[in-house]
């Protein structure tokens, strides 16, 4: 089973030596991961893949690192992944405080033995691996914290809006959500959303999880039914 959210992003400086060694450890551990030194690519990965851990392997005064942290802070506040920053030293309090305010959870030093860094990463990832092991073999499960959906033990990969729509409907089983409710709560009433948008998203969700979970209430909207 591919666990989409049990993955790691490494944002590194081009000259970073730790990133390549972390790559070897993650590959040996069969953990999906990506390494990049491009801010936009890193942001896109966080948005698209919802990693449970982001490792930053740059000097603490690297302006790109702070830019990256600021860009993903809102996403981090909503999805609660771990942000682990490897720095050259721990003596510059002001730099670290600025990064803490930008969402960094903890710091490590880049001159630490890489095996110790690997062990720390393993500890950070452990709760996510445990959560995956608890996936039921039968029925429907939605993990709101990690943006994961399972049907009969099988992970269903969904784009963000499909997931948010499913999460809304399943938050109150048997409650009928009107189309106006859905537009407001999922899309925020943005005028760029066409009238057929909800129908298309519902159809795609049904194709992935089955036809029976989401019921159409003609002339009103949709509701989620637990089987």
Tally of extended strands?
A: 11
Domain unit count: 2
CATH architecture label name of the largest domain = 3-Layer(aba) Sandwich
Q: Mean pLDDT across all residues, rounded?
A: 82
The amount of beta strand, in percent, is 15-25%
Please give a handful of descriptors for the protein shown.
alpha/beta; elongated; Rossmann fold; 227 residues
Q: Would you give an account of this structure?
A:
The chain has 227 residues and is α/β, with parallel strands linked by helices. The protein has 2 domains: 7-133, Rossmann fold, CATH 3.40.50; 158-224, Winged helix-like DNA-binding domain superfamily/Winged helix DNA-binding domain (Arc Repressor Mutant, subunit A, Orthogonal Bundle). 45% of the residues lie in helices and 21% in strands. It contains 8 helices and 11 strands. It has helices spanning 18-28, 39-49, 63-79, 93-101, 114-133, 160-171, 179-187, 197-209, and strands at 7-12, 32-36, 53-57, 82-87, 106-109, 140-143, 148-151, 154-156, 177-178, 214-217, 221-224. Strands 2-1-3-4-5 form a 5-stranded parallel β-sheet, sandwiched between helices. Strands 6-7-8 form a 3-stranded antiparallel β-sheet, with no helix packed on it. The protein has a 3-stranded antiparallel β-sheet with strand order 9-11-10. Helix 4 (93-101) links the parallel strand 4 and strand 5. Helix 6 (160-171) packs across helix 7 (179-187) and helix 6 (160-171) packs across helix 8 (197-209). The longest helix is centred in the middle third of the chain and has 20 residues, at 114-133. It is elongated.
